[in-house]
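Practice problem: Phage tail assembly protein
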Amino acid sequence: MAFQTEYEFELPRGYVDDAGNLHKRGVMRLATAADEILPMRDPRVQQNASYLTVILLARVVTRLGELKHVDTKVIEKLFTADLSYLQNIYRQINDLETPKLQTACPKCDHEFEVEVDFLSVAEGLS
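Answer key — structure tokens:
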């Protein structure tokens, strides 16, 4: 199975361009470290931390309908329901899922899954 780096979506309301065309289907790619770090230098983010969301989404939304380019101006004009929808997708595809380990009880041999939280384990070692 190939590693998935792009995810298709459909906006609940859709983006309406200047010509009145509705754009609902799009693609979002996984974020990189640069996607989250570089916008912090942007004066718009330094003046208003909430603008980080706009820049992040403009970087990771690679396609929206028939638009040739998705930039901050497009993201700024989204309906709030669509912005919230894209924020949720961003979190879903970029958050690290906690690894699970299949194990068994040494007394009764009952098999079960256990989540392995490496961050908590690392904190306990320091």
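Discussion: The mean pLDDT is 88. Students who identified this feature from the tokens alone can consider the problem solved.
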